[in-house]
């Protein structure tokens, strides 16, 4: 066990060194531009700095529900993180944590959806702007099935385009058919079906098509595969990874499955309970093989076990810390 823990530490150090190196590189580049003092280079530098406006910033974000009422409850406290803009490749961020730790709260604050939005204190910024409400740059996929019952698959997928109103009906239909195909449904067999005629997995495929057809730069997914059987879930994970590569968006993916968070994520934010905060940020191997193959591998399983041990340890440490605080408070009385 001790050895395993050390391996974990070593891995982390490797990751950190990598990060440091990247920062060094950037600084070096900037310095070079400074020295040359060339106007064209200055433009390039500004453009690059512009590129580097982070996708999402949480700055000490706290959300308290029912402020001032008897049932006042702080769901997340001082949550702070930054997701950088990686050119031509959005990042895939998994948000992992137990039920009730504030995962949906975080996601809906990014989406600008009430009553989670606005935060009680702190600052939520998307591409440098404080979030003021929902926007076309952010698309959301929920766990619960959210399509319109009275619309066919095709018309559900077309819905967002209709609202946007910048395409002819024929163009909308053509694009919707493309997306029905992309998410692994059949234009011939499924396009004219109604939602109740579809399995849970197919319904979530429709939900993904409805969201991604609008090409949001940020995709927010709240336990979208939580209700699916394990095999369907893995197929959905594969589809999602393929589409994510294509649309080059930044994905925030909420799950309470360690396997799922490790498989899908470039990075895992590990959340803890009461009130929710990030316990740890973990870099994990990218999903460069099919879900079923990769999740069977020893190396993958080891990362999952390490995270499970880490959660266990961090939660025990946190409990201890809270008990100490309580004891100290009791002693002071
Ligand atoms: N609108 C609300 N009013 C009051 N409490 C809420 C509301 N939404 C969520 N909560 C509480 O905040 C906590 C975090 O909720 P949530 O973000 O939904 O957690 P998760 O998605 O991790 O399960 C939970 O204890 C939940 O009961
Ligand atoms: Mg939730």
Describe this structure in words.
The chain is an alpha/beta fold and 333 residues long. It has helices spanning 2-36, 39-51, 103-111, 153-164, 169-182, 187-190, 200-212, 230-247, 258-264, 291-294, 298-332, and strands at residues 56-65, 73-83, 92-96, 121-126, 129-130, 138-141, 218-222, 250-255, 267-272, 277-283. Helix 8 (230-247) links the parallel strand 7 (218-222) and strand 8 (250-255). Helix 4 packs parallel to helix 7, helix 5 crosses helix 7 (200-212) and helix 7 packs parallel to helix 8 (230-247). The longest helix is centred in the first third of the chain and has 35 residues, at 2-36. The radius of gyration is 22 Å and the shape is globular. The structure holds adenosine-5'-diphosphate and magnesium ion. Magnesium ion (MG) binds at residues 103-104, 222.
Quick summary:
By secondary structure, the chain is α/β, with parallel strands linked by helices. The chain is built from 11 helices and 10 strands. A hairpin with a 2-residue loop joins β4 and β5 (129-130).
């Amino acid at each position: 066990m001790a050895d395993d823990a050390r391996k974990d530490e070593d891995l982390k150090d490797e990751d950190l060194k990598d990060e440091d190196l990247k920062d060094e590189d950037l600084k070096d580049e900037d310095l070079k531009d400074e020295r040359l003092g060339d106007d064209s280079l200055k433009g390039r530098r500004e453009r690059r700095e512009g590129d580097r406006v982070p996708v999402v910033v949480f700055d000490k974000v706290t959300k308290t529900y029912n402020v001032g009422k008897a049932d006042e409850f702080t769901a997340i406290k001082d949550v702070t993180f930054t997701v950088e803009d990686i050119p031509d490749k959005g990042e895939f961020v998994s948000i992992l944590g137990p039920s009730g730790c504030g995962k949906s709260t975080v996601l809906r604050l990014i989406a600008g959806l009430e009553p989670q939005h606005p935060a009680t204190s702190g600052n939520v910024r998307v591409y440098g702007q404080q979030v003021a409400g929902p926007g076309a740059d952010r698309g959301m996929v929920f766990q619960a099935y959210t399509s319109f019952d009275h619309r066919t698959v095709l018309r559900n997928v077309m819905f967002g385009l209709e609202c946007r109103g910048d395409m002819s009906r024929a163009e909308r239909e053509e694009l919707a058919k493309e997306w029905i195909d992309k998410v692994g449904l059949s234009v011939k067999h499924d396009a004219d079906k109604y939602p109740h005629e579809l399995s849970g997995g197919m319904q979530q495929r429709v939900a993904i098509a409805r969201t991604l057809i609008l090409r949001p730069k940020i995709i927010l997914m709240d336990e979208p595969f939580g209700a699916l059987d394990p095999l369907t879930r893995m197929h959905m994970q594969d589809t999602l990874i393929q589409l994510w590569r294509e649309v080059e968006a930044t994905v925030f993916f909420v799950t309470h499955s360690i396997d799922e968070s490790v498989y899908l994520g470039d990075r895992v934010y590990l959340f803890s309970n009461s009130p929710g905060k990030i316990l740890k940020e973990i870099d994990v191997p990218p999903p460069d093989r099919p879900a079923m193959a990769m999740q069977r591998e020893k190396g993958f399983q080891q990362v999952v076990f390490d995270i499970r041990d880490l959660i266990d340890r961090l939660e025990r440490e946190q409990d201890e810390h809270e008990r100490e605080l309580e004891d100290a408070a009791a002693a002071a009385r």
